[in-house]
Amino acid sequence: MKKINSSKNARFNPRDWKPETRYLILWLGVTIIMLILLIFWFYGLRSSLIMSNNESNARPLLNISQIQSDLSSGIEEVKSSTQALKKINTSTQDLTPEEKLLEEQNKIKLNELRQKLEQLPDK
Length: 123
What we know:
By secondary structure, this protein is mostly helical. The chain has four helices and no strands. It is elongated.
């Protein structure tokens, strides 16, 4: 195979181009690709905004009856929970005599310690 060395072939061979020309073509190619991506991104964003706008118009923003039913069901749930807690509190067993005695002894010791603390001189 013969290579034809003509000025026409040398002009279209990118290896023979000046570095400035190469950088210009590189910059131009990257810019075009980025512009294409940006255009498609804006188009997708626009179409999604149009679709979401159509969906939001179909249903009202404030549905008062739904809010009232949610609120009343929440209040009923809180009431039932508080009643269950009251049942738990009233169903606990009373203290045994030993526990009552221990509690009284602890109160006495605590009062003695408070009195000693009050008697200490302030610095």
